[in-house]
Every structure is written in structure tokens, then in C-alpha cells.
Amino acid sequence: MIEIERLEKTCTQPGGERVPALRSIDLLIPSGEFVTVIGTNGSGKSTLLNAIAGTFLPNSGTIRISGIDVTRQPEFRRAALIGRVFQDPFKGTCPSMSVAENLRMAEMRGERRGLRVGLSRSALERYHALLSGLGMRLEGRLKATMGTLSGGQRQAVTLLMSTLKRPQLLLLDEHTAALDPRAAEQIIHVTNHVVREHALTTLMVTHSMEQALEQGDRTIMMHRGEILADLSGTERKGLDTTDLLRRFAELRYTIEFAVPSRPAGE
Predict the structure, then answer these.
(1) How crowded is residue 40: how many other Cβ atoms within 10 Å of its Cβ?
(2) Comparing C-alpha atoms, which of 36, 44, 8 is closest to residue 225?
(3) How far is CA 33 from CA 12, 17, 98, 181, 198, in A?
(4) What's this model's pTM, rounded to 2 decimal places?
(5) For residue 7, how far is the Cα from the chain centroid?
(6) N or C: which terminus of the chain has fewer CB atoms within 10 Å of its end residue's CB?
(7) Going residue by residue through the chain (266 aa), what tens digit of pLDDT does each one get?
């Protein structure tokens, strides 16, 4: 379970202006739930993921992962609890190492190891089976260097690397945004396969309204560092992309053009 309470983060702009990036975020994600996150640029989507991952410390509030308060823990200490895939297909892997070596390094994360990665026959057979299950013909490229793979293939391997240790939370930060439509569709299929097979608690940021509604169990809308709406169940199932865009526009209008209430007696 992920518990976020009253999370606040203020950033300083180049000119010295202080801008709220996260405003009193409250979010509860039960174990195994798949949540999609949408919002405009600068709405706080990636900032929320960075706060959870420990990229920076919040100004106030608490973050708990499986009952552990990680609010003040540095990023490397949270790594055992969190798997993450970034927008850039070339981030989070070593391009000069083989696919098998990258997978082995991911599998050994958090363990004591010497100078050698140690690729045994059993490890190679395990990786072959895992890659075969993705349906992207990667099982025959275990010896290929990561730098020779396409963006979609690399994201598929990165997704597998981030979930080999069965993290308590999987963070997907627009992980299909840099891919062509066909590759993006493949990666969404792989994402669903991996997340559902292992019942991973997942938070996925996306700019795609279709992905936001079609993937996962629940959708949250963010704007100016706040959660405007939290959609799930029959309410979410009854929406299409046009409904979602209209709902988002209405909520943004309410926030941005709301007339402040007057004190009593005026």
C-alpha cells in the first residue's frame, strides 16, 4: 500500500520566484492497484513520481510504502522498494553491456557482488524464458548490446529489469512518449502483461487520454500541483476520451476562475 499525506513541494525558479510544485497531495493506493496519472505540462505529474522515488525531499508531508516511512530516505535507500521506467528509452541501462548483463545487474541490485557479473547457464535460461514471454522476439538477442536495440525493445527490457526484484511500487514516467505508435502499443501490451502477472502496485504518468482510461484500475487528474479528480469504478468505466477532456477542462476552469468567497458581513 502507498500512503501519501499532505505532500508539499515548492521550487525556486531561475528568477528567484517560489512556485508550488505539489500542493497538499493526499493519495492512497491499495496493494496491486494500477493507477494512471494525467495532467498538462507542469501539473506536477513527474514531480509526484520524483518525490515518491526520493529524487528530492518534500517541504512537508509524508510518504509511506508498505508501512515504511520513506519521506526522508535518500533515493538509493528506496531503490529496493521501487522500480522505475523513464520516458527516455536509453535511460536506466548500460548501452555497452549485453541484454543478459543488464538483466543480471538488475537482478543483483541491492546484493553484495564482486567484479564479475556472473552469467550462469541457469541465469541465461531464465532470461530467455522471461524475454520470450514478452512477445517481442528479444529472447534471441541476449548477447546483443543494449545500444543496438530499438527504442521499443529497450523499453521492454528496461521494464523487465525494473520488475525482476518484484518492487513494492512500479513508477512509469511517460514510458511510451518517445516511441512511435506501433512501439508504444507494444510496450503498453508488455506493461499490462508484467503488471497483471505479478500484481504490481503501479503509478503510470501519461499524456494519452486513451491510455489513461484504457489502462489500469483508476485515473487521477493533476493541475498546478493538485489532484483535481480521482476516477475509478463505474464512474471511470462510463467515460470516453471526449468526456475526460471535458471533465478536465471544467475542473481547470473552476480552479483558475473561481471567485473568492467574501467574509461574513461584507
Answers:
(1) 14
(2) 44
(3) 34, 37, 33, 26, 11
(4) 0.89
(5) 18
(6) C
(7) 899 999 999 988 788 788 899 999 999 999 999 999 999 888 999 999 999 999 999 999 999 999 999 999 999 889 889 999 999 988 888 999 999 999 998 888 766 655 455 788 899 999 999 999 888 889 999 999 999 999 999 999 999 999 998 999 999 999 999 999 999 999 999 999 999 999 999 999 999 999 999 999 999 999 999 999 999 999 899 888 998 888 888 877 776 665 444 444 44
